[in-house]
């Protein structure tokens, strides 16, 4: 058995490298008309059985939808704070509508990311690389060599802040829209963070003061048609590591959120944006807000699923680089349930392996 595993492991690495060095991405495989997917995209039985038993039973649950149109009116502000607080506590995921970004801007952003991915391989391949943490990176599966099985997606990734990205580094076909979307998503994130801060009994500007929105990574995913969607996933089940995430998607379904031990299909609301709590926010809120597992199923539609995700996190760590639950939230009745952790622990936990769920939270929970 060990010999078989070693052989398959060696062959897998060779296949991975051939795929990676071809720079064609999943989009290239899909466009080529293949009928079967390469073995390194096939997920283990436990993942696939979980997909089958959960995806086929469409849950009647729906993630909360919160209308922000009256967020600045005294008569309705506290009600919206309460709605955001409850959604972040019980779901960790919610959609916001009437958030101030015109639908035309959302549509143009989706179209620009789609246009990048639909360029000829020789045009977009000059951005294909695996150097993370700065600049612009296009790749299939950013964790390709760290994960046990690859997922059926390609991604354009741009590190927008805290050091401003030179717009000239962005592909010309989506440059204007990516820069504009970064500004729009940041405004929405600031509004939501203010409401989340108030939900904890803090000042609305507390999260901004703590630089919780200054580290920004923008990712434009494409989930092309998959000929064997029952053997792989669009993106594996995981939680996001940072403070909050702002997600824009087209009308092709695929996103699922775990809620009360079942997977809930997230139906796109045209003009809406999805917000989710990251692991870092769960920790600093001392467990008041919850980061939640989510995944994307492989796309069985001929039309590609497009999503534009912006991850927000902090830039200013405490002292010589550590963090933990906010002291303002702790008392004798509510002691810290997580220990302090370092910036190095935070980064190593994310970049040393494939996507996973709450692994940092598990490591620092005080038993």
Produce the secondary structure layout:
Blueprint: H1 2-22, H2 25-31, H3 45-55, E1 65-67, H4 74-90, E2 93-97, H5 103-117, H6 121-124, E3 136-139, E4 154-161, H7 175-199, H8 206-209, E5 215-223, E6 233-238, E7 244-249, E8 255-259, E9 262-265, E10 273-277, H9 279-284, E11 294-297, E12 305-313, E13 322-323, E14 341-342, H10 343-351, H11 359-364
Helix pairs in contact: 4-7, 5-7
Name the descriptors.
single chain; 367 residues; alpha+beta; 11 helices; 14 strands; globular
Overview of this protein structure:
This protein is α+β, with helices and mostly antiparallel strands and 367 residues long. 34% of the residues lie in helices and 20% in strands. It has helices at 2-22, 25-31, 45-55, 74-90, 103-117, 121-124, 175-199, 206-209, 279-284, 343-351, 359-364; strands at 65-67, 93-97, 136-139, 154-161, 215-223, 233-238, 244-249, 255-259, 262-265, 273-277, 294-297, 305-313, 322-323, 341-342. The strands form three sheets. The protein has an eight-stranded mixed beta sheet. It has a four-stranded antiparallel beta sheet with strand order 6-11-8-9, with helices on one face. The chain has a two-stranded antiparallel sheet with strand order 13-14. Strand 8 (255-259) and strand 9 (262-265) form a beta hairpin. The chain starts with a helix and ends with a helix. The relative contact order is 0.15.
């Amino acid at each position: 058995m060990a010999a078989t595993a070693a052989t398959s492991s060696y062959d897998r690495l060779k296949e991975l490298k051939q795929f990676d060095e071809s720079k064609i991405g999943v989009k290239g495989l899909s466009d080529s008309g293949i009928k079967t997917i390469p073995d390194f995209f096939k997920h283990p039985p436990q993942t696939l059985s979980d997909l089958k038993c959960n995806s086929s039973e469409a849950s009647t649950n729906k993630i909360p939808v919160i209308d922000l149109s009256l967020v600045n009116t005294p008569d309705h502000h506290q009600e919206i704070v309460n709605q955001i607080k409850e959604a972040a506590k019980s779901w960790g995921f919610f959609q916001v509508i009437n958030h101030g970004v015109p639908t035309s801007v959302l549509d143009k952003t989706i179209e620009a990311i789609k246009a990048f991915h639909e360029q000829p391989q020789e045009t977009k391949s000059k951005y294909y690389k695996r150097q993370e943490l700065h600049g612009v990176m296009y790749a299939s599966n950013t964790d390709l060599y760290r994960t046990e099985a690859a997922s059926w997606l390609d991604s354009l990734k741009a590190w927008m802040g805290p050091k401003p990205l030179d717009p000239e580094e962005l592909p010309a076909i989506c440059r204007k829209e990516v820069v504009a979307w970064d500004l729009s998503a940041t405004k929405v994130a600031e509004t939501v963070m203010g409401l989340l801060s108030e939900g904890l009994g803090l000042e609305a500007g507390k999260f901004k003061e703590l630089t919780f929105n200054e580290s920004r990574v923008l990712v434009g995913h494409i989930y092309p048609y998959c000929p064997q969607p029952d053997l792989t996933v669009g993106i594996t089940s995981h939680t996001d590591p940072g403070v909050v995430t702002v997600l824009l998607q087209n009308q092709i379904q695929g996103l699922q959120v775990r809620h009360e031990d079942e997977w809930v299909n997230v139906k796109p609301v045209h003009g809406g944006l999805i917000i989710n709590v990251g692991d870092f926010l769960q920790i600093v809120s001392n467990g008041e807000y919850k980061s939640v597992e989510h995944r994307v199923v492989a796309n069985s539609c001929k039309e590609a699923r497009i999503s534009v995700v912006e991850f927000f996190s902090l830039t200013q760590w405490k002292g010589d680089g550590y963090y933990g639950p906010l002291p303002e939230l702790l008392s004798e009745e509510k002691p810290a349930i997580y220990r302090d952790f370092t910036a190095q622990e935070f980064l190593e936990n994310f970049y040393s392996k494939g996507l996973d769920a709450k692994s940092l939270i598990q490591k620092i929970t005080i038993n």
